[in-house]
Amino acid sequence: MTQPYGKRGGRPAGVLGARRALALAGSLALASLAVAGCGSSHKATTATIDRTAPAISKSEFVRKANAICAKGNAKNKAAGAKLGAEPSEAQVVAFVKHTEVPAVQAQINALKALGAPAGDEAKVARMLTLAQAGVNAVKAQPTIVTSGANVFARFARVAHPYGLISCAPTS
Fold this sequence. Notes:
Blueprint: H1 13-25, H2 33-37, H3 58-81, H4 89-114, H5 121-140, H6 153-162
Helix pairs in contact: 1-3, 1-4, 3-4, 4-5, 5-6
């Protein structure tokens, strides 16, 4: 059950909100957000991988994907630090809408542009579809990042065993 915006665990919700916003920044994968555990009806169409990209091995894909996510994580963490210790709900929402969502969308687009290793096209498309579903859900409900929902769970279940450990690292 989602707690209202206010005190949680003895800390002002703004502190928790900032942490959630920073966690959100940490990844490609706002993955399947409410689809993972909140029963959301937000759906994403199947991701389209750039099939015109040069052939890429799995090890090269994993290396490049982790680099994309790590770079995005660092940028978003720095941007999130500007929120301060106790941002208001409005500040968190603005940050999510104007900083996090576009940043994560850029990461998804960069991963799509890599193409996919031969034989893994369906798995990579599934990962990217889960990520896009999360972005779509966060666009619809930016405060989900302060709810305690594990927004990366379904993506992480696919991506981490594949080797994408820098994407959704806290899931």
